[in-house]
Amino acid sequence: MAINYSAVQWNRQKKFYDFALIGGVALYLLTFGAVTEILFPLVTAEILLMRALGTAAFLLLHLILCIGPLCRLNPKFLPLLYNRRHAGVTCFLLAFLHAVLVVATYHAGGNLNPILSIFASSPLTGSVAGVPFQPFGFFALLILFLLAATSHDFWLANLTAPVWKALHLSVYFAYALLVLHVTFGTLQGETSWFYVAAMAAGLVTVLGLHLLAAHQEVAPDSEKPASSDRPSAVEAQGFIDACAVSDIPENRARIACITGERVAIFKYAGKISAVSNVCQHQNGPLGEGKIVAGCITCPWHGYQYVPETGASPPPFVEKVPTFNVRVKDGRVWVDPKPNPAGSRAEPALIET
Ligand code: HEM
Ligand code: FES
Q1: Calpha distance 121→140 (Å, rounded)
Q2: Verdict on whether the full-model pTM lies above 0.85
């Protein structure tokens, strides 16, 4: 973690993004209300609000899911990534209000427990249009709650980054449930096919951006090491030719895929060091960061690591694996066997 890291403090940038988030949601709800009043004047206030809140939550979820691949495609979107958690909590709150209104309107009037009524209200009929769509929404809401409740850095630190990351990947499961919720809900309700068309456009956007970003990731991975046909002493020791020293800009890195693992090779102060590309915070790409005040600084939230040891400067305790490196004839050679996280690997001096 970076000594100067201030993610949970209220800085100007965070306030700006929160203001834009709340303002955007308010504007959407007002516009949705006004357009519905004009096009469907007979819709009751509860149903109008229920639809406005449900669609606002779903739309916001699309934006949240698109931020990750957008950042991989263009670093200009990174500020959205830093502020994504508040969008996630807002999405849950909107969805929760939507569900509360639905339960109060459709499920609270009978003898049955309102939550049980969500499951019992549409018995299976065998037809596609009769698929009970509300339970999909219920389970998606549970996942959104879990993610919002564990979004704070407190949980990240206590659950550990890999567990937290795995937990938060369930947002894609929630999204799949919501696609079913909205599709089957629209097939049964008197809502227009516009919902299905808009949802299909959203699905294509989310999938398309993820495929594009994945393609961009795979491209550098599939680059072959430049000169495996040149036997040398370092090669005999099992080192792999990763790139030319001149390929790496000063205080920056080049990411190489060394026998399946992505390694960030940094050039700084006449030296070369290599560490795992995966940041311990939220798996951010360290090789896209830069050296700041002598430390590798993650581009996502600013966690820092000493290039020679892969350890965060005290008092922080995060560690990434290091790799042994050599420089020979202007090329960087990397030992594919990682050293344990936080252990020192002697940097290679750049030949002059
Ligand atoms: C307990 C959880 C939920 C229940 C019981 C529920 C129930 C419903 C119902 C009854 C409708 C049809 C409303 C109507 O038009 O008359 C609906 C639609 C919809 N819901 Fe949900 N829902 C839940 C959770 C969610 C969540 C978590 C989201 C999004 C994050 C969501 C998004 C939507 C959307 C976009 C629509 C379509 C617009 C509409 O017709 O209102 N719902 N839901
Ligand atoms: S600092 Fe958050 S992923 Fe690296």
Answers
A1: 18
A2: no
